[in-house]
């Protein structure tokens, strides 16, 4: 994959004067045929010639990848698409204003043939999708520059893509740098309606903020419409102070949307806002509490503070999260910065701390340990690190030993910070006991001695 210039290199480059840079560029062109070819074909040739060169280059690449027997590995695929962006997508985007019709034609061809291009590749890294979206972005930018006389063809093209490409997204029509003319989008919606494609016409109406049209389409068959665009419509209605209609829409989609966490968070916020703006603060509170019961996320407590403007019901939230389990309670208290209560929970569960740690996410547990240590709960922070180390070592997978070594070192560091001789001695005794159990794992103890030199004598 091509390496980018560092910030320091870019700064040095910008310090060159224009004449100096030009002289250096001419020297590079004169002495390096490959650079000369790129500069001439992509910078100095007329736009029409650049399009021809790009078309020929793409045809060669497509034939090379799809006609041979080679299968492109994970890393080879990443390199292909990194090169694709530099060699094709960026030059086409630069040409969009000068020759939009030609850019539309070539980018559409690339999009249409993309599945075939990927057929001999390991696409598991997802780099293909970034490249694919970038092509769509270039296509839409070039569509902006088309003359109005070509709108009919553009509508046909967008209609075809929307119905035949599963990756097509209506939001892309109004993304940053891309705002297709409203008249064109209205023509596209009319074509969708002619073909009785109510759901797509509804989505496009919401994007256009054509609320009367969106509501009329919603009333026809709400069960078939996109949940995300129904949420967007409700949001617009709340902004327009039509809270009753927003509440009706949100109430209808609640059963379907509960299984999607992010969408359900959005639903909860919109429904509570609508009730609040409708003067029904009690119902707003109930909506938030019901969502919190369903999924005890700190997000809902923040939403409650925003909507209800009071923290007096925090005990009710804490009682609800307790019912879900101590792991949920610890995570909630952590977000509240209530480290004293977390410490108290662990002290009560000191004999079952291994079972409690097993219920917590590993990365969260490390973050919790660090935070508790900073706030004076050294002993619990140490015990958490020990549990993490033991859990990792028991896996007996050497590639994870570096994490166990880090946890072993941290529990020593925390013991030293506690300024308690008993805790310090206990930390080293724990390491000795751990060594006696797992002494056959030589690669682990080699890493431990490398990271913590003072243990070399202790472990002999």
What does this molecule look like?
The chain is mainly α. The chain has a domain at 24-146. The protein has 27 helices and no strands. α11 (198-207) packs parallel to α13 (227-239). The longest helix is centred in the N-terminal third of the chain and has 22 residues, at 74-95.
Q: Characterize the largest beta sheet: strand count, sense, and whether it forms a barrel.
A: none
SS elements, strand count: 0
What pattern of helices and strands is seen along the backbone?
A: HHHHHHHHHHHHHHHHHHHHHHHHHHH
Give start-end ranges of low-pLDDT stretches.
none
Q: Note the total helix count.
A: 27
What is the radius of gyration? 30 Å
Cα end-to-end separation:
46 Å
Strand content: under 5%
Quick one: overall form? Answer: flat
Mean pLDDT: 90
Structural class: mainly alpha
Oligomer: single chain
Name the helicity range: over 70%
Q: What is the topological layout?
A:
Blueprint (H helix, E strand, L loop, with lengths): L6 H8 L3 H14 L1 H12 L2 H21 L6 H22 L4 H13 L1 H4 L9 H18 L6 H14 L17 H13 L3 H10 L3 H10 L6 H13 L3 H15 L3 H17 L3 H14 L3 H11 L5 H11 L1 H10 L3 H10 L4 H6 L3 H13 L3 H17 L6 H18 L2 H18 L3 H10 L3 H4 L2
Helix pairs in contact: 2-3, 4-5, 4-6, 5-8, 6-8, 9-10, 10-11, 11-12, 11-13, 12-13, 13-14, 13-15, 14-15, 15-16, 15-17, 16-17, 18-19, 19-20, 22-23, 23-24, 23-25, 24-25, 24-26
Task: Throw out a few tags for this protein.
mainly alpha, 27 helices, flat
């Amino acid at each position: 994959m091509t390496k980018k210039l560092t910030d320091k290199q870019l700064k040095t480059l910008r310090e060159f004067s224009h004449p100096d840079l030009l002289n250096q560029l001419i020297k590079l062109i004169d002495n390096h045929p490959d650079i000369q070819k790129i500069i001439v074909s992509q910078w100095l040739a007329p736009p029409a010639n650049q399009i021809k060169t790009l078309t020929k280059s793409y045809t060669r690449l497509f034939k090379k990848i799809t006609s041979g027997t080679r299968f492109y590995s994970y890393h080879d695929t990443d390199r292909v698409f990194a090169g694709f962006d530099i060699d094709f997508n960026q030059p086409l985007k630069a040409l969009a204003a000068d020759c939009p019709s030609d850019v539309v034609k070539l980018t559409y061809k690339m999009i249409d043939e993309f599945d075939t291009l990927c057929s001999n590749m390991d696409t598991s890294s997802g780099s293909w999708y970034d490249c694919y979206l970038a092509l769509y972005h270039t296509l839409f930018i070039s569509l902006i520059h088309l003359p109005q006389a070509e709108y009919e063809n553009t509508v046909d093209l967008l209609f075809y893509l929307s119905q035949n490409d599963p990756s097509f997204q209506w939001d892309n029509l109004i993304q940053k740098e891309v705002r297709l003319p409203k008249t064109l989008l209205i023509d596209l919606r009319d074509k969708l309606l002619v073909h009785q494609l109510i759901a797509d016409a509804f989505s496009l109406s919401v994007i256009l903020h054509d609320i009367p049209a969106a509501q009329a389409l919603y009333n026809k068959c709400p069960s078939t419409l996109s949940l995300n665009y129904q949420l967007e419509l409700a949001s617009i209605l709340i902004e327009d102070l039509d809270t009753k209609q927003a509440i009706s829409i949100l109430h209808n989609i609640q059963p379907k949307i509960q299984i999607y966490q992010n969408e359900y968070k959005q639903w909860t916020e919109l429904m509570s806002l609508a009730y609040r703006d409708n003067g029904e603060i009690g119902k707003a509170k109930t909506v938030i509490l019901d969502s919190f019961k369903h999924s005890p996320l700190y997000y809902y407590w923040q939403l409650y503070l925003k909507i209800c403007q009071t923290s007096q019901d925090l005990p009710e939230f804490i009682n609800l999260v307790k019912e879900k389990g101590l792991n949920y309670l610890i995570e909630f208290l952590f977000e509240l910065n209530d480290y004293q209560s977390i410490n108290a929970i662990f002290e009560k569960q000191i004999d079952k701390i291994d079972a409690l740690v097993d219920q917590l996410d590993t990365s969260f547990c490390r973050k919790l340990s660090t935070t508790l240590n900073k706030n004076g709960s050294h002993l619990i922070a140490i015990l958490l690190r020990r549990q993490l180390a033991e859990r990792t070592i028991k896996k007996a997978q050497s590639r994870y030993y570096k994490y166990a070594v880090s946890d072993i070192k941290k529990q020593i560091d925390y013991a030293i910070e506690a300024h308690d001789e008993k805790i310090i001695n206990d930390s080293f005794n724990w390491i000795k006991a751990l060594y006696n159990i797992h002494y056959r794992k030589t690669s682990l103890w080699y890493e431990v001695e490398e990271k913590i030199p003072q243990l070399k004598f202790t472990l002999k």
